[in-house]
Amino acid sequence: MQAVSWSQVEGWQDDSLIGARLALAQSCVKLSRQPSWLPACRASERLDDLDPAAVRQFFEQYFTPFRIANSDGSQTGLITGYYEPLLHGSRVRGGVYQTPLYKWPAGRKAGSLPSRAELNRSGILRGNELVYVDDPIEAFFLQVQGSGQVLLDDGTVMRVGYAGSNDQPYKSIGRWLIDRGEITAAQATMQGIRAWARANPSRVDALLDVNPRFVFFREMPNHGVGGIEGPIGALGVPLTAERSIAVDPASIPLGSPVFLSTTRPPFGAQANAPINRLMFAQDTGSAIKGGVRADFFWGLGDDAGDLAGRMRQSGRMWVFLPNQ
C-alpha cells in the first residue's frame, strides 16, 4: 500500500456519502476498542449523515488514504457482487415446500461429511431439517451466498446464517453447463442458470450434484423483511446494502473504510454507470483473495440478486487508515 493525497483518490468527490456514517458506526462497534480507532469513532458520533461536506471533512481529518495494489504491482482488480436472498418456505414440509435447508448434523465433526450427492441420498441429514423452501435452485444459490431470509407461509420471517460446510471443493455448475453446450458463457450468470433450471426441472438434482460442496444453516435473530439490519458479516456486525464489501483480510484490515472506483454491472437503466463509493470492509469470502479484489453487497431480494449475479467489473481501491 502507498499513502496518497485525497486528490489522488479517484472519484472521492463524487460520493454523496449518505449512509456512510451508519456503516462506519457498525465498524466502530468492533474497532473502537483499538486505540488508533477510538478518536475517529468518537468523533463520528457527532456527525449529521445528511451533511455530506461535514462527513467528507471528517474522513479527511481522521484518516489517510492508501492506494491498494496487487502482489504484482497492478492497481486494478476484479469486483464481483453478492446479496441476501429472500426465499419462500415453511417450517413444515408440504405442498410446494419440499426442499429442505439443513442445520449441522448433531454429533458430526468438521471434515467428516461426504459430498452433496452422498449427503442427499445417504440419510445422514434426516432429522436435521431447519426449514423447507419451494425451489431447489434458489436453495442452492442461498448456499452460495451463505445467508438469507425465508418468508414463511405463516407470514413470519426466518433469517438463516452460515453454520458450516462439508469442506468439499466448490465446483461451478455454470462451467459444467457451458462445457456440455447447455448454455453459453454469456448465459453463465445466476439468472441464466435459473432460466435453465426452470426449463429443465427434471435435471436440476443432477446439475446441483456437480458441486460436492454443501452448506449448513442456523436460524439467526431477525428484524423482519427489509429490516434495518442486514446479515452479519465476518466482522461480526450487520452489513449495509451498497456500503459493505467482502475483502481479503490478509490485504485489507476488516472494518476499514475502502473507497471503491468501479462500474455497475451491464444490466438495467444504469448499465455500466460509474460507481465511486465509500465502502466498508465488513465481510470476507472464500473466493475473495488478493489486494484489489472485493465483493460488493447489494442488499436483500431479487433486485439485489439481479445486480449481484451480473457483476464482474474491473475496479480500483483505496483503504482509509486512521491517523495515529
From TrEMBL:
Keywords: Cell wall biogenesis/degradation, Lyase. CDD domains: mlta_B (cd14668), mltA_like_LT_A (cd14485). It catalyses: Exolytic cleavage of the (1->4)-beta-glycosidic linkage between N-acetylmuramic acid (MurNAc) and N-acetylglucosamine (GlcNAc) residues in peptidoglycan, from either the reducing or the non-reducing ends of the peptidoglycan chains, with concomitant formation of a 1,6-anhydrobond in the MurNAc residue. GO terms for cellular component: outer membrane. The keyword Cell wall biogenesis/degradation applies. InterPro entries: 3D_dom, MltA, MltA_B, RlpA-like_sf. It is an enzyme of class 4 (lyase). This is peptidoglycan lytic exotransglycosylase. Pfam families: 3D, MltA. GO terms for molecular function: hydrolase activity, hydrolyzing O-glycosyl compounds; peptidoglycan lytic transglycosylase activity. Its EC number is 4.2.2.n1. GO terms for biological process: cell wall organization; peptidoglycan catabolic process; peptidoglycan turnover. It comes from Pandoraea pulmonicola. Transmembrane segments: none annotated. Residues 86-218 form the Lytic transglycosylase MltA domain. The keyword Lyase applies.
